[in-house]
Amino acid sequence: MSDHGHDASGSAHADQPLGPIDAAPLHAVVDALATALHEYLGTAVGVRAEFGSHEADEDPRVLALEARVGVLNAELYDLVHDRLGLHADLTSMAWDESEHDEETANLDAPPAPEITEVFHLGFVIGPPAGTSDVTMDSVLDLLDQGGEDLVVRLVDAGFDVVEWATARGEPADFEGFGDEDEDET
């Protein structure tokens, strides 16, 4: 049976309750993550006070702390998965703009049904170590190949992938996505 099989053996992935759980290791990772996030903010504030946003984004201290936070996020996911059998979605960056824009929110109107959403997958990539034939520009080609594979997997899972793109530096701009073409009659 696979790791995600549903059995009654008392494993984290079983259909039965686990009973008493020692949460101390889970809290230890959360504490380490909180410490790393506080260190990141302290460093980011200091770096940003000295440099422009682009330089601050690429500062090795900031990048190292972002990598550390990413490793701790992965460790937390793995621990929650291994101990509790949950597939925690703790690191997604998703928010409802209407919650943050009170000026345009119409409290009397029912919420519009969401048909499509934009998702982003980001990477912080450094150059290859040593002598190499590849350049940072070749990263886009590799990401395009991966994007094509992901589109196939999403479509195979039943999703309708309306648009996708690979971008460097900023998430792809889907501004105007879903707007009606004014030239159509």
Topology:
Layout: H1 24-50, H2 53-57, H3 60-84, H4 97-100, H5 138-156
How is this structure best summarized?
The protein is mostly helical. It folds into 2 domains: 22-94; 117-176, no CATH class. The protein is built from 5 helices and no strands.
Model description:
This protein starts with 23 loop residues before the first helix and ends in a 29-residue tail after the last helix. It has 2 domains: 22-94; 117-176, no CATH class. The radius of gyration is 22 Å and the shape is globular. The protein has 5 helices and no strands. With 185 residues, it is mainly alpha-helical. The chain has helices spanning 24-50, 53-57, 60-84, 97-100, 138-156.
Structural descriptors:
185 residues; mainly alpha; disordered C terminus; disordered N terminus; single chain
Count of β-strands:
0
**N→C terminal distance:** 57 Å
Percent strand: under 5%
- Give the mean pLDDT: 76
The coarse silhouette is globular
C-alpha Rg (nearest Å): 22 Å
Biggest sheet character: none
What is the domain total for the residues? 2
What is the tally of helical segments?
A: 5
